[in-house]
Amino acid sequence: MSLSSWLTRHAQNAVGALGTLSRNPVATALTITVIGIALALPAALGVLVQSGRALAGGWADVRDFSVYLAPGIALGRAEALARELRVNPGVESVRVISADIAVTELSKDPGFAGALLALEANPLPHTLVVRPLVSMDSAALEKLGAEVQKANGVDLVKLDLEWAKRLSAVLDFLRRLGLITGGLLIAAVVVVVGNTIRLDIQNRSAEIEVAKLLGATDAFVRRPFLYLGLWYGLLGGLVAMLILLIGLWALGGSIARLAGLYGSNFELGGATGSSLLAVLAGGVLAGWGGAWTAVARHLAAIQPKIA
Amino acid sequence: MIRFDNVTKRYDGAREALKGVSLHVEAGELAFLTGRSGAGKSTVLKLIALIEHPTRGTVTVDGRNLGKLKDREIPGFRQQIGMVFQDNKLLADRSAYENVALPLIINGTGQREIGRRVRAALDQVGLLDRERYPPRTLSAGEQQRLGIARAIVSRPKVLVADEPTGNLDPDLALEVMALFKRLNEVGTTMLIASHDLHLVEHFGARRITLTGGQVLDVTAAPLTASTGAVSP
């Protein structure tokens, strides 16, 4: 068979499969809506996890830890230690708060102002505020804290690991939830498409039988059904994209307002081009996979016969 | 062209449909396979079309031992033989043109060539003016002729037909048989299964009679037949 015949045959199958769908508009619309919803849910969860990561970045200050230098240590030593920490790959930034600045800040608090005046000397040490990278897990954070504690001139490292652990656990949970939900819903798409194709194979069993009798190869018989699955997946993916975009548009404003009431600047992230493309590709793969599953199981059972 | 050597066919848990059948149809010959219902006619055709496989013995078509064909070679073999069925096996939701074009689409013929050959085949069976009609709008005779057009459109060397006149009245049956005769005259080897002895005798071709799964009788090839070595 020449390349042009091969291409023509594929084009005919692709268009023919689209024609099959258009001849049953209601059934087709229901099927692709189900596929679209099934694909949109994990995609929406993906957007939520992305937004959660961004939020984690916004909450970076909860991961900050303070390094108190011993009384009497010179400011120069504090700045030298800050420089050492800044080159650490797990550290995002280091801020030096001198004892003078610290006491000035503290004196602005009416509760402490009187007490500070009664003191002859500044009781506060020089302090470093270290911001670790968001990607650091609690174990790495603990290790970093222990290393800093050993540094010369350091009196105390105050590290709140509970917050870091909680945040890390929430993000890990969301990521796993996304993977499990995504896997289950993709499997659901495969089943939906597979079942739809199975019914189509049954409805066209006479045609398949005649084609095999006339010498049709398995590939020839299989191809229209694979294109059918591909169209289901592609159209379902488009519906999922639409649901996702409409959903994000409809919920984005109200979520931002709600977060604002709690003093957070949290916003639902928009669907990126690559995430939309992933939804579409997931739909196509799931549709094609479902069709292949059905075809592999049911086509072999239809064999030509003469009465 | 078609040779059965001591072929036995036993269906699962059933009696033997063919018992040591040997027969031979020469290239370019028109032969009839006759016998009562259950004599084994359809089994012979099923073995030729590779719908069934012999329990014992060898079936050879156009020099190919069918028992040695691999599964992936079966479609290619079926593309090379024409088959006409008693129930036509036409696709109800396709036009006459699309039905006849199916074997050419299957074997990858180009669109332009398909158009030319389908119209030629429809013309040959007198249905050119019906190309857009679906089979249900055609008469029984026209449907049978449409089935023949589909069988000949890919110009097979061998054409087998299973009771092609079984559902037709005598006049239409004669018309269809005359069409087979004309196709045979241009060199197509034909084996036609029919229980209608009067019709078979009318055409005077060689007749292989089966009974109880065995060859009962083989008439001599008529002088007018294109060739026809008598066997077994």
Describe the structure.
The complex is a heterodimer of chains A (307) and B (232). Chain A has helices spanning 3-23, 25-58, 75-86, 99-107, 110-118, 138-149, 161-203, 205-213, 218-261, 273-298; strands at 65-69, 91-97, 127-132, 154-158. Chain A has 307 residues and is an alpha+beta fold. Chain A has two domains: 3-58 and 166-298, no CATH class; 62-160, Alpha-Beta Plaits, CATH 3.30.70. In chain A, strands 2-3-1-4 form a four-stranded antiparallel sheet. Chain A is elongated, with a radius of gyration of 31 Å. The mean pLDDT of chain A is 84. With 232 residues, chain B is an alpha/beta fold. Chain B has a six-stranded mixed sheet with strand order 6-7-8-3-9-10. A four-stranded antiparallel sheet of chain B has the order 2-1-4-5, with helices on one face. The radius of gyration of chain B is 17 Å and the shape is globular. Chain A binds chain B through residues 1-2, 4-6, 8-9, 206-207, 209-218, 220, 303-307, and chain B through 42, 45-46, 49, 51, 72, 75-80, 83, 85-87, 89-91, 102-103, 105-111, 150, 162.
CATH overall fold name of the largest domain in chain B: Rossmann fold
Q: Beta-strand percentage of chain B?
A: 15-25%
Order of helices and strands of chain A: HHEHEHHEHEHHHH
Estimated helix fraction of chain A: over 70%
Q: In terms of structural class, how would the helical and strand content of chain B be classed?
A: alpha/beta
**The CATH superfamily title of the largest domain in chain B:** P-loop containing nucleotide triphosphate hydrolases
Please count the beta strands of chain B (DSSP E, at least 2 residues each). 10
CA distance, first residue to last residue of chain B: 14 Å
Q: Name the overall outline of chain A.
A: elongated
Radius of gyration of chain B: 17 Å
Which regions of chain B have little confidence, pLDDT < 50, spanning 5+ residues? 223-232
